[in-house]
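JOB MANIFEST
job_type = single_chain_structure
chain_count = 1
residues = 199
[input]
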Amino acid sequence: MTPVFSFDLSKNLRKTLNYIKTNDTLQYYGTRNIAEIGCFEGCSTHVLHKNFKDLPFFNKIYCIDPWDDDFHERGKPHFHINYHDQFDRFTKNIKNIRKDLVILPGKAEDILPKISPEIEFDFVYIDGDHFASSVYKNGKDAFSKLSENGYILFDDYLWGDYKNYPKLCPYEGIEQFIDEHKDSINIISKDFQVLIKKR
């Protein structure tokens, strides 16, 4: 079955993953577990799978998303056709790669602390709830489960009207995360996406 997506916003993700595989040791040492926070219809899930599945030691992609049908704009939920029945579309789209996924419906702030302490992530992609407080907490929780030399990739750093509505956009949350973890991370790239590596 060919996946069908309402829209493809994975251009920046593809670019960043290509940079990592070209310029860092990931291609040699591989990844075990990956976490994706915010999966929507599975487009980025497919991109992650394509880029990591053939690397050494690949195990699973943990897909974390509430998959609710509300679209939030400036803090208010409302109906949006692209978000209605999104979990059904996700399920259909990932059918061919299902064996490599762990699907965890719910908010990342509730899911991540419940994942076994024995499981570490080598790569975490954060593109879920865009409220600054949520992005910060997702980053903080993900960092606690990140392996040494593991990566966190924050999406949508410059998304939205973050100057006038800082609490409603990822920018402030990402900046807070960076400031609090500056002694234990390296910033690899900082553009529309922010890639950090744990020291």
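[summary]
Helices lie at 11-23, 26-29, 43-52, 86-93, 108-111, 132-144, 170-181.
Residues 153 and 195 are 4 Å apart (CA to CA).
exit_status = 0
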